[in-house]
TrEMBL record:
Name this protein carries in UniProt: C3H1-type domain-containing protein
UniProt source species: Durusdinium trenchii
PANTHER family: C3H1-TYPE DOMAIN-CONTAINING PROTEIN, UNNAMED PRODUCT
């Protein structure tokens, strides 16, 4: 958005040639900067923003850069697509142009690491790289960059920004004010989205008559589901014919519960054969205590649609009972 007139800026052109057609005078604004990266924000693989500290004769200057992949000449160095491509503290040299119609920042045409500088490097000792030393050095660089950018460096309090003002305790160490209108708008949108989600959840609970409940841990889900099947359909129905067909049942947790705990015949169909077709050690012990040799049948096959439009099984490996 154009902050002065409230008008939306057009999208960045798809190539530097298209930019020249739209703004022929853009080459007249070409400049070259060399400085230290103070901050960077990677929006996507095609768009990255950066704040550069440029040292001049009079005073240091903060320059805002925009790396648009469509405009960067990648014959030398590609446009940064990850945060690690443009670390804080890195010394870079950039060739930029100005096109205020499209972006308020300088648009990067070419860039490279400065020949006389680079990002902080941790020396490798006799025992390899010290991670503690590496992280401490990164923290030092980040603190210096925040000090150069100005501001108190405090992060916004999520509880304060997500609720009514004054809802957080006085002992909170985070910031209880907005630094910009953009930050306030972002917090308001997040709060509205959360409130909308809570309203929808309340409506669903009222409609279906179910209140909030705790999710059962993964290890007990098969037991709960097996108990629900037995309660809903009964053992007689589930045991009729050849029993239950457990399709894509993974390692057979449900089949184990039905066949061992409830005595219901089960056939597991899953193409993956784990542990060479052997049961887990605790499962083998459980079978020995029950005087059984087999829990359920495992068919390592897949369902496929053949030319006659009928579902068939294709065996990947000879099936073995489990």
């Amino acid at each position: 958005m154009d902050a002065e007139h409230g008008l939306a800026r057009p999208a960045i052109p798809s190539s530097f040639e298209a930019l020249l057609e739209a703004e022929p005078q853009v080459l007249e604004s070409k400049r070259v900067f060399q400085g230290e990266v103070l901050s960077r924000r990677v929006k996507s693989k095609h768009l990255t923003f950066c704040t550069l500290q440029v040292q001049s004769d009079e005073q240091d200057e903060h320059v805002a850069l925009c790396f648009a992949a469509a405009l960067v000449d990648e014959s030398q160095v590609p446009s940064p697509t990850r945060r690690n491509d443009l670390p804080v503290g890195l010394q870079i040299e950039v060739e930029v142009v100005r096109a205020p119609r499209f972006r308020p920042e300088f648009l990067v045409r070419r860039w490279r690491r400065a020949p006389d500088g680079g990002s902080p490097v941790v020396e490798t000792g006799a025992h390899g790289v010290s991670m503690a030393r590496c992280l401490a050095l990164k923290d030092q660089v980040n603190r210096r960059a925040k000090a150069l950018l100005g501001g108190d460096g405090l992060a916004l309090c999520k509880r304060w920004s997500g609720c009514a003002a004054g809802s957080c305790s006085e002992a909170c160490e985070f910031r209880h004010y907005f630094q910009s209108a953009e930050e306030e708008t972002k917090a308001r949108h997040a709060r509205c989205a959360r409130e909308r989600s809570q309203r929808l959840q309340a409506q669903e609970q009222e409609e279906y008559g179910e209140g909030p409940h705790e999710k059962v841990d993964k290890a007990r889900r098969a037991a709960r589901f097996a108990a629900w099947l037995v309660k809903t359909y009964g053992r007689e129905v589930l045991s009729s014919g050849r029993g239950v067909l457990d399709v894509a049942g993974g390692q057979g947790d449900l089949s184990w519960q039905l066949s061992v705990e409830y005595g219901i015949p089960c056939t597991l169909i899953d193409p993956m054969v784990r542990r060479g077709g052997e049961l887990k050690s605790w499962q083998r012990r459980a079978l020995r205590k029950r005087g059984r040799e087999q829990a359920f049948e495992h068919l390592p096959v897949t369902f496929e649609l053949n030319t006659s439009s009928r579902w068939t099984w294709r065996t990947r490996r000879d099936g073995a009972g489990m």
